[in-house]
Write a structure and sequence with these properties.
alpha/beta; Inosine-uridine Nucleoside N-ribohydrolase, Chain A; eight-stranded mixed sheet; two-stranded antiparallel ribbon; 14 helices; 12 strands; 44% helix; globular; binds alpha-D-ribofuranose; binds calcium ion
């Protein structure tokens, strides 16, 4: 009898320990998207991150393709997390034209035979974000690496959403440098300037990881080759989908490598010490040639805008960790 009781208690303990991964609770709001795929792979390999869900948004591709691509990545990376689908268009109500010239016709470069695996989560993105922020009050980090429509929807749905967050890390903006969609605007902000402005008006504990730092993290074809050698399955897939992306950077931007935009934002969630930040309020230009520009505004709540980055450390974290995957 005594031995049996000890065995039961031990089994319960192991079960709890296995369920409790520990680490920072993280939801990534994403429009996969090639650099999104790289960022989600990183999150799967980062022991200090406990990814509890993905929410999808239009942007690099249509939102149903974002969701399909996200569910494929969850399956491929062996993640057991829900994918909650979000907005199909921005707050302006415009018909969205995906960035197919950058991320390919379906978001994964010239890889277009991505299967539909599993189902989207029963809740929509905003409902999922609000519920998880309440459930994990003060512990949840949300990393937004697409247009900010879902984040703004969550703020509209629950005014207490931002107070429940531990941190909101945004890949977006070009505050003290040129944009990448126009000379003024970065893509995630450009795709929904109204939602972005609403997010910068809320009092979320926000870190902005913009082009000011992400364009310093160029990942070249030889880096993808090395990654594919280290992690044949994951690295091989990332190399396959990134060929199209690398061509865009070479032919349009004249750069030998693509920016680790989204991975840099996910790394900032747990390694903020690798960045120098400047606190400034931000507003977003809504119309005209400067649509989507992120401008400093002292009347807005302060956002920690990344101005400096330890490029070597960030790149090493990415390659070492993604390289450790199958
Ligand atoms: O400007 C870069 C951002 O726009 C990245 O998030 C990329 O995936 C695209 O969404
Ligand atoms: Ca993205």
């Amino acid at each position: 009898m005594k031995f049996g009781l000890c065995r039961t208690v031990f089994a319960l303990f192991i079960g709890c320990a296995l369920r409790y991964r520990g680490g920072m609770k993280l939801i990534i709001d994403t429009d996969p998207g090639i650099d999104d795929a790289m960022a989600i792979a990183y999150s799967a390999a980062a022991a200090e991150l406990d990814l509890i869900g993905l929410t999808t948004v239009f942007g690099n591709t249509h939102v149903h393709q974002s969701s399909r691509n996200a569910r494929y990545l969850v399956h491929k990376l062996g993640l057991d997390v829900p994918v909650a689908q979000g907005a199909a268009q921005g707050w302006q109500g415009e018909q969205h034209a995906p960035s197919t010239h950058v991320h390919g016709p379906e978001g994964f470069g010239d890889v277009t035979d991505i299967p539909e695996i599993g189902q989207n989560h029963a809740q929509g993105a905003a409902e999922f974000l609000v519920e998880q922020a309440r459930l994990h009050r003060g512990q949840l980090v949300v990393c937004a690496i697409g247009p900010l429509t879902n984040i703004a929807d969550a703020i509209r749905l629950d005014p207490g959403f931002v107070q429940n967050l531990a941190k909101l890390v945004i890949m977006g903006g070009a505050v003290f440098c040129n944009g990448n969609v126009t000379e003024h605007a970065e893509a995630n902000i450009y795709h929904d300037p109204l939602a972005a402005d609403a997010v910068f008006e809320a009092r979320a504990p926000t870190v902005l990881v913009g082009l000011d730092v992400t364009l310093q993290t160029l990942f070249a074809a030889r880096d993808f080759d090395a990654l594919a050698d280290q992690a044949p399955d994951t690295g091989g897939f990332l190399r396959e989908i990134s060929r199209f992306y690398l061509n865009f950077y070479r032919e349009v931007a004249g750069l030998e490598g693509c920016g680790l935009h989204d991975s840099t934002a996910v790394i900032a969630c747990s390694h903020e010490h690798l960045f120098e930040t400047q606190a400034t309020g931000l507003r977003v230009i809504q119309q005209g040639d400067e649509r989507g520009a992120t401008r400093p505004d002292a009347d807005r709540p302060p956002v920690r805008v990344c101005r400096g980055i330890d490029v070597g450390q960030v790149m090493s974290l990415f390659t070492d960790r993604v390289g450790s995957l199958p």
